[in-house]
Design brief:
heterotrimer, A alpha/beta (about 575), B alpha+beta (about 160), C alpha/beta (about 725), A: about 575 residues, alpha/beta, Ubiquitin-like (UB roll), Alpha-Beta Plaits, Rossmann fold, 5-stranded mixed β-sheet, 4-stranded parallel β-sheet, 19 helices, 17 strands, B: about 160 residues, alpha+beta, Arc Repressor Mutant, subunit A, Glutaredoxin, 2 domains, 4-stranded mixed β-sheet, 8 helices, about 10% strand, disordered C terminus
């Protein structure tokens, strides 16, 4: 243990602790900007500087380790002035657009400028000028707002292993961009949106679809249907100052009705359907012994990654559409027939924790044979939060309502889709019954829960033992895919999610409330717990026991893997340019 | 993206030899030097090929190519006039020399004349400070250049065209 | 395991006997400089012309050799003529017609061409040249001027002053090997005999014996081989050189940089053979520590300590040594000259370092802008490998080490060690936070020692002559010599190697010959864009790490620019800031954003738009950048501005308050005007004006239309009657 003094207070911390963390132990929050606990230390913004005795220069507390008898000053007048000046230097090269900015009120830079007391501009001069880059349906890049903290570059390479973003040029001309400064759409961007999540300002934001949705809602000819992903209910509350992990399913349904949606369905239904189809696919493959391991296909970021980076493994991916796309397809076929509305007059809105879904709905493979897309708009959780606020709905105090039937009913297996390991667990529940032909005794597959990054497990089903793996964050995916490629180990089923923690950590989820940070494992944990609680509370917890799913097969799809199921619920993938470098 | 362009065999062999060595990705800058030496600049296609051969993400290749001022991403003129803007040259009036070149050629620093004959570049100190101001035209160094010399120098270079071809 | 000592003996003997066999000792050698600067001055043509003439003469006793650059840049190309048993003659600024004259008159005719002699000091050929060590430390009697003393005694002994020439030399590096401070030392050419004496009667004895009886006064002869002997014997008669102490540059301009034989004949690789023979790496580190050598790249960190760090705190068997030859300071060319003139010494220094720390691989990171240096290094590495001086089992010692060259690509920040490592790894050269230091975690995470070119060039010498000897040179805290690249408005520009502790005044006036005609010294800029402007009032400061830091500058890597009264301090500060701003890697906020803001303020001031608060803002930003930047580039970037503000605040205020530039450099603050009394109406200015803003008929007074004038200064430059004035 090391003893040191911070602002006169003695603190004892383990060797190797940074000053920043040591200060936190005694309730001193040193302001910071480029620092992110889950990413490598950059030390570039210099906001977290402190004075350390016997050092003529100020040291970055995020990168400076404590030593015995260290004397640290975090708040001398010189430090305060230096921090103020540093923030001003960043502001001087940043658009003065706070009031019209997506991150207004939710911006780390704005917050620092206020708390550090930048009340006047002393050094203002030339400012960088760049156009907004809007080529991607998912991620918009606003270089002019970028403050070069490199969090996006780090998340894209360290967590996602995509290496799409890099700093280009240098000095004052430095920009963050894909290779050759190409538009995002022409890059290996997998549209996961983690750059949006970690960005302290609005240099990366989602391609906003709210206007499109407002218009559809205002159009009397349109039958506007909304579906919400499993992870929305566990996170949306944070957008309304609720504690992370507060599930607000009923309020969300009510709010959506108030916004004017004609029907409110649950992507969970699609999730249950996915499990039935995917479990069927798994059982078939296990029986034939071909194309194993089965790679899950719910995460559109992961699928885009597969196409760019591992085209050779495409045959292993499940051909199941994502739950969202399955449900949307049914909405414009099965449901349209049921309610006798021309599918062309139906506008399907999907509320997703994800910005890759905005890309997914544009995939030509997922369009109807008549050319129109099955999903018309994707809203992120953040966009929905904003719409509810814009509409003046007192969300927190709303009465709780139920989803519409029949495509609003779901089992507990669908709820856990929103968290890492959830798809795996849901699939195992159904596959186990299919493989053994008997009801399962233990419904909870806890060995695949709360996966921090990557986990391999062996699951006993009847007499057979299945080798499974769960990976979230694509750097972890790479690790497991390399094992598959090199045939290091025989796997049967692998769940892959692009985002850390699964969909609950998606690129479209609310920015963290005070006291938490972006991608904070604590938030991920609380959101996951909320989903598991919903699962526990449900009477039906096996996808194939969803009564409306059963009815759907009886009335429409015949049986899992049938021709019509294939036509409507399955898709294909193809290698994508530019080819990624692993 | 066109992948049809082949890499010169010498460069290709060099990459191959790098791949045999430990830390082969570290040869990225060396390979880019060779490409620029051979083709005059780094084209997008060539950078892409290098990225795939060395298995360095394209964003990093692009990041490196744009970080270092020595690398050019556009073709340069047949005669690259590079004006040293080092301290000694500055003190001895390199700015005036630059101005003269800009006036005479009708282009600004970093540009190439429309006929593709001359490019105007600046270089970091060439380390020939005692003979300041110095410029280089392609590999040749000219020392103690004055603004008055400039028209003559350009003519001299132009006249040498048949000789060097 | 073999025996490195006998390996070396064999190698050295084979080169010596090869040399004897070549008969070069009995031939006339023409030596032509061949560094980048020499070539820029036209040495290739000189080389060709001599070759042609030698062939045409049909003489086989005339040979031509190339050598590196001595650093006497302003007088290049330099040609040396060595005739057997004669004092070598060096010629300056040689062109093709001059080659013909030298060849006819000197080589064939045996007559020196006095008007072409380097620095024109040698008007005639002397029989003897005496070089005295005039280093202050050597004298037993500091009042005595040894030169006058010698001349008196020569006269007293009836020697014709036309036959013996006496020079004041700098420290010959003999100190420490002899009794310091109790003797006089002098060297007599062409016999290259060194005498030391303590009294005047001893001096008489020497004169009698040496010049009268033509026998060596053995009683007073120092047998010590002294390190700069060869250099002194060649250049000791040139004022620019004989005040210098050439330790690291001793072979530059002396040997053929492409010849391993030349290097070995000048004690090359003897140091390596000795340490390999002793087989005690720890002792090598101890010796380097004891020598007090500090990094010559700018920081001044003790080299031995750095080596020790790489072995003390780690068990990692994989280690690297890197030679930092990314000489990026504008105005500095020490490393280029060293690499071009004596590449083997760098490789030997690296090999010794590698042996000491246990590295098996070394990298030389050199600027791509130095093609000749790269070529010479490649050649040297190749030859060293062929002769078992690099590679596996070096000198049969069992020690393996190899070197690879890695090219920079135009980024000043790569001189910073962490950025340099990233660049070697093929990445963007952006520095990272230290610690960990490279000696803990360097290239690919392994311990890495990074030493500058000049630092490494000191290593073989230290091990050859001993730490004690080395530590006698210089000041108590800064040992050895330092090479400076003297440039700007000084008479003798070029490379200057002086013991630490020499004053700026000595360098500028004694070696540099003072300022160009009629100019007044304003400031000395040392340390390039990281250093500061030292005003004339402080030029008695000695050059060593601490003294320079104390007055707001730094030693840096050795750039030294002389500014005179026609240089504007605002423009100079702006120039350096423009440089660092342009070279900022963009990683940390203060350097990326702050330097631009400072630059904008300086631009404002130089354009006459400055306000008094601007100076406070410059200081506030400057101190912020210094204290909060991530790496050395940013931490030192404000130095040129802050030191200028400190020492020349009045000049800034004149720009702000009076809107005038006293040096008449800031174009927005000056006007060109034609003095009617002086104008002859020759029309030259009107014809040359690029914007045709000068009007006037032939033989009538011309007028500049101020509103159209772009202040290019062309009229001022071309006017033959001084009729254009700047106001």
């Amino acid at each position: 243990m090391v003893h040191l003094k911070i602002d006169g207070n003695t603190v004892t911390v383990p060797e190797g602790t940074t000053i920043l963390h040591a200060a936190e132990q005694i309730g001193i929050h040193i302001p910071r900007l480029c620092y992110h606990p889950d990413l490598s230390v950059e030390g570039a913004c210099r906001i977290c500087i402190v004075e350390v005795e016997n050092n003529s220069n100020f040291l970055p507390s995020c990168a400076t380790k404590v030593h015995e008898n260290m004397q640290v000053q975090t708040n001398s007048p010189e430090i305060r002035r230096a921090r103020r000046d540093l923030i001003e230097l960043i502001l001087d090269n940043h658009p003065r657009e706070c009031q019209t900015c997506e991150r207004d009120g939710n911006c780390e830079l704005q917050n620092l400028a206020y708390t550090l007391g930048v009340r006047e501009r002393l050094f203002e001069g030339r400012r960088k000028k760049y156009k907004i880059e809007k080529s991607s349906p998912s991620v918009i890049r606003d270089t002019e707002k970028c403050i070069l903290c490199r969090r996006c570059v780090r998340v894209c390479s360290e967590i996602q292993g995509v290496y799409n973003l890099s700093q280009l040029y240098r000095g004052f001309d430095t920009v963050v961009a894909p290779a050759y400064n190409a538009p995002m759409e022409e890059s290996v961007c997998i549209a996961c949106g983690q750059c949006i999540n970690v960005c302290p300002v609005a240099a990366f934001i989602e391609n906003n679809s709210t206007e499109q949705v407002w218009q559809a809602l205002a159009d009397p000819k349109k039958h506007v249907i909304v579906q919400i992903a499993p992870s929305i209910r566990a996170a949306i509350g944070e957008g309304f100052n609720q504690l992370p992990g507060t599930s607000m399913t009923g309020q969300t349904v009510t709010a959506l009705r108030r916004l004017g949606f004609d029907a409110v369905f649950d992507t969970n239904f699609g999730a249950d359907l996915t499990i039935v189809e995917e479990a069927n696919e798994l059982v078939n493959r296990l029986e034939s012994g071909e194309k194993l391991p089965l790679l899950t296909s719910c995460s559109s970021g992961w699928i885009k990654f597969l196409e760019h980076f591992y085209p050779e493994l495409i045959p292993f991916a499940s051909t199941c559409k994502s739950p969202m796309s399955m449900l949307s397809t049914l909405l414009k076929t099965y449901y349209a027939e049921l309610v006798k509305i021309d599918p062309k007059d139906i506008h399907v809105v999907a509320v997703m924790p994800c910005v890759a879904k905005k890309f997914e709905i544009q995939r030509p493979e997922l369009a109807s044979p008549h050319g129109y897309p099955y999903t018309d708009s994707v809203l992120t959780t953040r966009e929905l939060v904003w719409m509810i606020k814009a509409y003046g709905i007192d969300f927190v105090h709303l009465p709780e309502q139920e989803f519409d039937a029949p495509l609003g009913f779901s089992t507990g297996a669908a709820d856990i889709f929103g968290t890492t390991g959830g798809v795996m667990e849901a699939a195992l529940r159904t596959a186990a019954e299919k493989l053994t032909g008997q009801p399962i005794k233990e419904i909870n597959f806890t060995q695949v829960r709360q996966v921090k990054g990557l986990k391999e497990a062996s699951v006993k089903i009847g007499d057979t033992s299945l080798n499974v793996a769960v990976a979230n964050g694509l750097t972890n995916a790479k690790t497991i895919l390399e094992k598959v490629k090199n045939k290091e180990k025989e796997f049967h089923l692998i769940e892959l999610m692009a985002c850390p923690g699964g969909c609950i950590g998606g690129g479209g989820q609310p920015y963290p409330p005070e006291g938490y940070y972006v991608l904070d494992p604590e938030i991920i944990k609380l959101r996951a717990q909320a989903l598991y609680k919903i699962d526990e509370a449900k009477s039906v917890r096996l996808s194939h026991e969803n009564k409306f799913i059963k009815k759907l097969y009886q009335d429409y799809l015949k049986y899992p893997g049938s021709e019509v199921a294939h036509k409507l619920l399955h898709t294909s993938y193809s290698p994508r340019e530019p080819k990624g470098i692993k | 993206m066109k992948q049809s362009i082949e890499l010169d065999s010498k460069i290709s062999n060099f990459i191959e030899s790098c791949l045999q060595k430990p830390n082969h990705k570290s040869y990225l800058i060396a390979v880019l030097h060779k490409i620029q030496q051979h083709y005059g600049y780094l084209s997008l296609e060539h950078m892409n090929m290098v990225a795939h051969r060395l298995q360095v993400p394209t964003s990093m290749v692009s990041g490196v190519a744009t970080f270092y001022h020595y690398f050019r991403l556009k073709p340069r003129g047949k005669y690259a006039i590079s004006i040293c803007l080092g301290t000694a040259c500055f003190v001895k009036g390199a700015d005036k020399v630059l101005e003269a070149f800009e006036t005479e050629l009708g282009i600004k620093m970093g540009e190439t004349t429309p006929d593709g004959l001359f490019s105007l570049e600046n270089s970091r100190c060439l380390g020939v400070c005692a003979l300041a101001p110095v410029i280089t035209i392609n590999e040749r160094i000219f020392s103690k250049v004055t603004a008055q010399n400039v028209p003559g120098l350009i003519n001299k270079v132009k006249m040498e065209i048949p000789m060097t071809e | 395991m073999g025996n490195p000592g006998s390996f070396y003996k064999q190698l050295s003997e084979s080169y010596h006997s090869e040399y004897i066999r070549s008969g070069l000792l009995k031939k006339i050698i023409i030596q032509v400089g061949s560094a980048t600067c020499e070539k820029a001055a036209g040495s290739d043509l000189v080389w060709q012309e001599f070759n042609k003439l030698i062939r045409a003469s049909g003489r086989d006793d005339i040979v031509i050799k190339q050598t590196g650059c001595t650093g006497r840049c302003a007088r290049e190309p330099i040609v040396g003529v060595f005739s057997p048993n004669q004092i070598p003659i060096k010629y300056e600024k040689i062109t093709v017609p001059k080659v013909q004259t030298i060849f006819q008159d000197h080589i064939i005719g045996g007559q020196t061409v006095p008007e072409l002699v380097l620095d024109k000091k040698t008007q005639k050929r002397y029989d003897w040249v005496i070089t005295t060590c005039s280093s202050r430390r050597c004298h037993f009697d500091k009042e005595t001027d040894l030169k006058i003393l010698l001349q008196d005694h020569l006269e007293k002994n009836d020697l014709d002053p036309d036959t013996v020439r006496v020079f004041h030399g700098g420290c010959m590096g003999l100190c420490g090997r002899e009794k310091v401070g109790k003797q006089h030392i002098m060297m007599i050419f062409p016999e290259k005999i060194i005498y030391r004496f303590e009294t005047e009667s001893q001096l008489d004895e020497i004169i009698q014996s040496h010049f009268k009886s033509k026998t060596i006064a053995q009683k007073y002869q120092t047998k010590t081989d002294f390190i700069t002997e060869q250099f002194f014997s060649l250049y000791g008669d040139v004022a620019f050189f004989n005040k210098q102490t050439r330790l690291t540059l001793r072979n530059c301009g002396l040997i053929d940089p492409e010849s391993l034989g030349d290097y070995i004949r000048n004690k090359g690789y003897e140091a390596l053979s000795r340490i390999l023979e002793q087989n005690n790496p720890e002792k090598v580190i101890e010796q380097v520590m004891a020598s007090g050598l500090r990094g010559r790249g700018g920081g001044g960190y003790p080299t031995g300590q750095k080596w020790k760090n790489a072995v003390t705190y780690t068990q990692d068997p994989q280690k690297y040594i890197v030679c930092n030859a990314d000489e990026g300071d504008p105005g500095a060319f020490m490393d280029r000259s060293a690499l071009e003139g004596d590449p083997f010494i760098i490789i030997e220094g690296m090999t010794i370092g590698a042996y000491a720390i246990g590295a098996s691989q070394g990298y030389i990171y050199v600027r791509a802008e130095y093609p000749l240096a790269i070529q010479r290094l490649e050649n040297a590495i190749e030859k060293a490998r062929k002769n078992n001086l690099l590679g596996k089992n070096i000198m049969n010692s069992g020690f393996n080490f190899d070197v690879e060259i890695r090219l920079g690509a135009g980024a000043f920040v790569c001189g910073e060690e962490t950025a340099l490592m990233y660049s070697i790894e093929g990445k963007r050269g952006q520095p990272r936070i230290r610690p960990p230091y490279p000696t803990q975690s360097g290239l690919w995470g392994h311990p890495t020692v990074i030493n500058n070119v000049e630092t490494l060039a000191n290593i073989p010498t230290i091990l050859l002559y001993g730490a004690d000897w080395f530590s006698q040179i210089g000041t108590p805290k800064s040992k050895g010599t330092k090479v400076f690249a003297l440039a700007g408005n000084v008479k003798n520009t070029g490379l200057v190697e002086v013991p630490m502790g020499t004053t700026l005044r000595e360098i500028i006036f004694d070696i540099g010959g003072g300022l160009l005609e009629g100019r007044r010294l304003k400031a000395v800029q040392t340390g390039g864009p990281s250093g500061g402007c030292i005003p004339e009032s402080q030029i008695d400061t000695t050059v060593d790490y601490e003294s320079l830091a104390q007055i707001g500058s730094i030693m840096g890597s050795g750039g030294m620019i002389i500014l005179d009264d026609r240089d504007c301090i605002v423009a100079t500060a702006k120039y350096f800031l423009e440089f660092t701003q342009n070279e900022s890697c963009g990683k940390c906020v203060p350097c990326r954003e702050g330097t631009l803001r400072m630059l904008e303020i300086l631009e404002r001031i130089s354009e006459g738009n400055g306000v008094p608060e601007d100076l406070d803002k410059l200081e506030r930003l400057g101190n912020l950048i210094k204290k909060t930047s991530l790496c050395g580039l940013g931490q030192t970037a404000p130095n040129p501005v802050l030191s200028a503000l400190k020492n020349f605040r009045d000049e800034f205020l004149l720009h702000i308050d009076e809107k005038t530039c006293p040096a008449k450099k800031c174009s927005k603050l000056i006007k060109y005007q034609i003095i009617p009394d002086k104008c002859t109406g020759c029309t030259l200015c009107a014809r040359r004006c690029p914007v045709s803003c000068i009007t006037g008929k032939s033989r009538q007074v011309h007028i500049i239309q101020q509103e159209k004038c772009i202040k290019c200064g062309e009229c001022y430059n071309v006017c033959k009657f001084d009729a254009v004035s700047i106001i």
